[in-house]
Amino acid sequence: MPVFVWQGRAAGVLKKGEMQAPSKSAVLARLRQMQIQPIPNRIKEKGKLFDISFALGGVSTRDLVVFTRQLSTMIDAGLPLVRGLDIIASQNPNRKFRDIVTRVKEDVEGGSTFAEALGKHPKVFSNLYTQLIRAGETGGVLDVILQRLATYLEKMDSIKRKIKGAMIYPSIVIGVAILVLAIVIIFVVPVFAEMFKDMGTSLPALTQAVVDLSFFIRHNILFILIAVAAVFFLTGFLYSRSYRMRRIFDAFLLKLWLVGPLMLKTIISRFCRTLATLTAGGIAILDGLEITARASGNIITEEAIMDARKAVSEGQTLAEPLMSRPKLFPPMVVQMISVGEQTGALEDMLNKIADFYEEEVDIAVASLLSALEPLMITFLGATVGVIVVSMYLPMFKLISAMAG
């Protein structure tokens, strides 16, 4: 039987000790019997005091959807929350997620609310997730909220998968193109360069430029790779740490040809679906707008939603401030939100807008692929063609000289 190190308070005095018990929940129960108020996060199994997990992989959206649906079904069937969490933890194949669910169960057993227990794992359970769970616990409709959350997560995951799927083909083509060009420049061009030396004639400008490029890359390949890695690292670091950099980059993405319209449609769909889910879950409109802004995924739209939240707090309707941002929120979106507010059916209208823009995302993804394919083929063909022509130009020059 494992030994647990514990800390708790009795009459305001901090107490510590060790206890043999089958589980952390048993330790909690026994301490309460001893009139000691346990500190749940200070109870650790001996030998695991640092609680370091080396579990591979992470928690995917699919894992979260399955967990949410399973828990909803169990609660709807009358099973206690702790029992449902225990069953899910025992059969979950993802070790990392299994450990998290187990800790959530132990925290609930220790007296925390379900929302508080989930809030300790923000990388897995978002603020939106925990806020809806809190509303569900307060209103006694946790199973309904969990069903809505599962549906919401599935729809968001569907959009992500479509966009990621659309990027796979271009990424493969670009990767193959870079590999082919690298092989040609590093291994093929030097062979021709040695042959040209024996000709004893000056090389055409295009050929000389390609040979010089090959020489530079071959003799500085390590520095080039380090520089490319440093640029990517620095860009990622500045984006994550600098609000101004994120704002510039996010604004640029929204204006980018083909990519911008796709991103905007995705953002509008996410905005409407998120706000509809929060509203249906009983979250106040001001809190819902704040959570939705943080979940928008783009600084520009986050600022616009927060401005709308401020306007709503001052007595305006939601449609009024959105109307002043036609580049972010098209007139159709604003008009439907306005109708929803006037008729008391805002949630339904938001869901209809989200459904419409999810279909628009499908069309935009297809358009992006249709446009990128010929562009990539043209670029690859032109680049390889320039290198091939540059290698044959000296031969044409030599043949012309011999014929003359």
Describe this structure in words.
Mean pLDDT is 83; it is low at 48-57. It contains 15 helices and four strands. The radius of gyration is 30 Å and the shape is extended. α8 runs antiparallel to α15, α10 (259-280) packs antiparallel against α11 (285-294) and α10 runs antiparallel to α15. With 404 residues, it is mainly alpha-helical. Strands 1, 2, 3 and 4 form a four-stranded antiparallel sheet that branches. The protein is 75% helix and 5% strand.
Features:
single chain; 404 residues; four-stranded antiparallel beta sheet; 15 helices; 4 strands
Short description:
The chain is mainly alpha-helical and 404 residues long. It is built from 15 helices and 4 strands.
List the topology elements:
Blueprint: E1 3-10, E2 13-20, H1 24-33, E3 37-38, E4 44-45, H2 61-76, H3 81-91, H4 95-109, H5 114-119, H6 127-139, H7 142-199, H8 205-241, H9 243-255, H10 259-280, H11 285-294, H12 299-313, H13 319-323, H14 331-343, H15 346-403
Antiparallel strand pairs: 1-2, 1-3, 1-4
